[in-house]
Amino acid sequence: MRGGMKTTLAGLALLLAAGPMGAQDYPVEPPKADQAPPPPIGLALPEDYLAPPVDLVTPLAILDRLVVPGTRMQLEWRPGGGISAAEIPSPVVVTRGALSGPVLCLVAGVHGDEINGVEIVRQLSHGIDPTRLSGTVIGVPIVNVHGYSRGTRYLPDRRDLNRYFPGSRSGSIASRIANAFFQDIVSHCDMLVDFHTGSFERSNLPQVRADLTRPDVLEFSRHFGNTVVLHSPGNKGMLRVAATAVGVPAVTFEAGAPARLEPEEIAQAVAAIERLMVQTGMREDPTAADDATAEIDPEVVARRPDPAPIFLDSRWVRANSGGLLISEVTLGQRVQSGQRLGRVIDPVANVERYILAPVPGRVIGMALNQAVLPGYAAFHLGTETSEQQAVQEAVTPQDGEGPEPDPESRPSELAEPSDREDYE
Asked: What range(s) does the Succinylglutamate desuccinylase/Aspartoacylase catalytic domain occupy (predicted)?
């Protein structure tokens, strides 16, 4: 019995001695800090093992509807108070991205006869894939349904809607419509582009007009690819001026002439906005896959947009006599001082008088061939400069900052554009 007990005790001692070594699941040498094993399954992971948090995208509440992430919805906007009860509603296309990002508002048709912008916003609003969008695009192709349905720039009372933002609830019809649009749409925007064309039978080279004295607007204006940027402080009552004043960086995008659809100008504007969305992180760059071969593929290099030229100083060249205007230059053309821009023919006296460029520059706006009176603004010339010089000149007070807004008792169409800026 004692012998068996001794054997059992000896075996137990051996098991106890070997136990720790058999249960050990790591080397005798403790691991170094940079070679730590992964934590056991089922235990909470340290921060180093956690994936970065993903921003939760919630539905957007707008115009009494909810637009869920990854979808597009077409809504209707009507100013309150029965202002437009007898008119067709203004369409509002909301594309809510599946990923988080800023809210970009694209607005057109503030002037009812400027239909290039209507088509630009329509194409962009319905051409964006919401499942691959970071942020939201709110497209309003026709703000002034009154003017659009009648083919005119103005509201029924002949007021210019783009002189009454942000508006008021108790003012004229223009003020009330402007106020309702500001509260219902602009209040949702993080940045805004307002599309226009030349006015009164004039055409504009595709261009961005921005107040470069505002740092947020200056930064915003850098994202439109190789589109021309013109410093323009704007006038009181303009949509972009009112939006910027409440912290929404806004610019005006001019493209073409009123009362007609111009495919080339429309395509340039659409490309500029697509570039804007890439630059602001709302969309992936479709040319990103070409970056690896960009250094050896000349076609890829050729597709890259050049830095945006900025036209700080601009002036209108006016006709000094009445008659029939015939242009001899085209939009975007560079001209020298003294070069002939066009001629005015007096059909009664059979006399031709030439319009000459007073300074070198580039034609960024021009009147279409038509009958003109003395003093008619015929050609808009812009002088190219660097961004640094543009900002420096923009913050320097200058004479003639543009016309004061017209009083409510006088139709806006009676006002004459200044030498520094035409109508927006």
From this structure: 101-277
Domain CATH for 318: 2.40.50.100
Tell me the residue range of the domain where 241 lies.
60-284
How large is the average pLDDT for residues 258-274?
97
H-run or E-run covering 345: strand 340-346
DSSP string, 143-198: S-HHHHHHT-SS-TTS--GGGSTT--SSS-HHHHHHHHHHHHTGGG-SEEEEEE--
In whole angstroms, what is the distance from residue 315 CA to residue 137 CA? 34
Q: How many domains does the chain have?
A: 2
Say how far apart CA 56 and CA 179 lie, in whole Å.
Answer: 32
Q: How many angstroms separate the Cα of 194 from the Cα of each of 33, 114, 162, 238, 251?
A: 58, 12, 10, 10, 6
Structure confidence by residue, pLDDT tens digits, 148-194: 999 999 998 899 999 999 999 988 999 999 999 999 999 999 999 99
Q: How confident is the model at residue 412 (pLDDT cuts 50, 70, 90)?
A: very low
Higher-confidence residue of 400 and 160: namely 160
Q: What sign results for the dihedral spanned by CA atoms 234, 238, 240, 242?
A: positive
Residue 332 φ then ψ, to 5°: 90, -10
pTM: 0.80
Q: Is residue 31 part of a domain?
A: no
- Helices and strands (H, E) in the chain, number of each type: 9, 18
At residue 90, does pLDDT exceed 50?
A: yes
